[in-house]
Amino acid sequence: MKRPGTGFIRLTHALVDGEAFMLASNGARCLLILIWRRFNGRNNGQIPLSVREAADWLHCGKTATARYFAELQQLGLIEAVTKGQFAIKSGTGKNAATTWRLTFLQNERADDDKAA
Residue 104 pLDDT more than 60? Predict the structure, then answer.
């Protein structure tokens, strides 16, 4: 059984030295780490994170956080799979956060398979 707090995020040289990561602002990089922190090895494409929650974690405003999300999407590091619906007040979509996919994880696995 996995103990809480025992996970890790693998920042490979290929990712960190890649053009997209190098072009990202520091705020966008921090946001990327937060999204990645929620990846459990099986939920890529189903990683929930709202702008409000990310803004709290990043200690910045919602406008800046929304810019970081847009920046990461424009750089191709993440993509929105299901758009959140904060305005829905009842039903299955009530206050649902956007779900995200880390686009670089499939490439990383392919590189690992080639090295093996």
Answer: yes
Is there a contact between 113 and 106 (Cβ–Cβ < 8 Å)?
A: no
Are 81 and 97 a contacting pair, CB within 8 Å? no
Contacts of 67 (CB under 8 A, 6+ apart): 27
CA-CA-CA-CA torsion sign (28, 39, 100, 108): positive
- Residue 92 CA, distance from chain mean position: 23
Checking phi first, is residue 48 left (phi over 0); if not, alpha (psi -120 to 50) or beta?
beta
The predicted model scores a pTM of 0.81
